[in-house]
Design a protein that fits this description.
The structure holds two protein chains of two kinds. By secondary structure, chain A is an all-beta fold. Chain A has no helices and eleven strands. In chain B, strands 2, 4, 5, 6, 9, 10 and 11 form a seven-stranded mixed β-sheet that branches. Chain B has a four-stranded antiparallel β-sheet with strand order 1-3-8-7, with no helix packed on it. The chains are: A mainly beta, B mainly beta.
Chain lengths: 112, 111
């Protein structure tokens, strides 16, 4: 089983709609969770951290479910500029050193 | 300019040649990382460094060498390039393991 699994999509969503992605992780000891955004042929950029209580940043809401080991990202009122690949990122311990494990990403296209 | 830069941005080389990819950051971040990104695999960690002169292997370190003599530089060397090392390489830096800031990437093709 992969450490971090995401539905690769693509998700094709009309402008203004709400879209949600889930991501599952295998390491129950993971403590830190993030969503990164990657535009086509560009570098990944941190979109938001995911806190236990859930958190919101404008149109974006991130949730964590530790019992089921998944995190989610909800985008409301989607804009054309939201078209990108969204990477789910989870921390893990590797021989005593912490590192981040990146999912393969979910591709989102917003349709005018 | 402030930030993190990578050079070259594009590189074509031949099997067996040595190639060095450069990474430079101006934030004085302690941590620096090298990843490769391939279709179907996402970003995979090659090497990372917690400080100057401290480096550790990631999950796909075979065939790669790094050094970090200065905080701001973290070059990645492919000792003898193979076709399987054709990829996009990203360098990143951060003050901790989290919130990593990525460079623009180097697209490497090994013929």
């Amino acid at each position: 089983r992969k450490e971090v699994e995401q539905d690769p999509g693509p998700f094709n969503v009309p402008e203004g709609a709400t879209v949600a992605f889930n991501c599952t992780y295998s390491n129950s000891a993971s403590q830190s969770f993030f969503w990164y955004r990657q535009d086509c042929r560009k570098e990944p950029k941190l979109l938001m951290s995911v806190y236990s209580s859930g958190n919101e940043d404008g149109r974006f809401t991130a949730q964590l479910n530790r019992a089921s080991q998944y995190i989610s990202l909800l985008i409301r009122d989607s804009k054309l500029s939201d078209s990108a690949t969204y990477l789910c990122v989870v921390d893990s311990l590797n021989f005593g050193n912490e590192k981040l494990t990146f999912g393969t990403g979910t591709r989102l296209t917003i349709i005018p | 300019d402030a930030g993190i830069t990578q050079s070259p941005r594009y590189k074509i080389t031949e099997t067996g040649r040595q190639v060095t990819l450069m990474c430079h950051q101006t934030w004085s971040h302690s941590y620096m990382f090298w990843y490769r990104q391939d279709l179907g695999h996402g970003l995979r960690l090659i090497y990372y460094s917690a400080a100057a002169d401290i480096t550790d292997k990631g999950e796909v370190s075979d065939g790669y060498v790094v050094s970090r003599s200065k905080t701001e530089n973290f070059p990645l060397t492919l000792e003898s390039a193979t076709r399987s090392q054709t990829s996009v390489y990203f360098c990143a830096s951060s003050e901790s393991v989290y919130e990593q800031f990525f460079g623009p990437g180097t697209r490497l093709t090994v013929l």
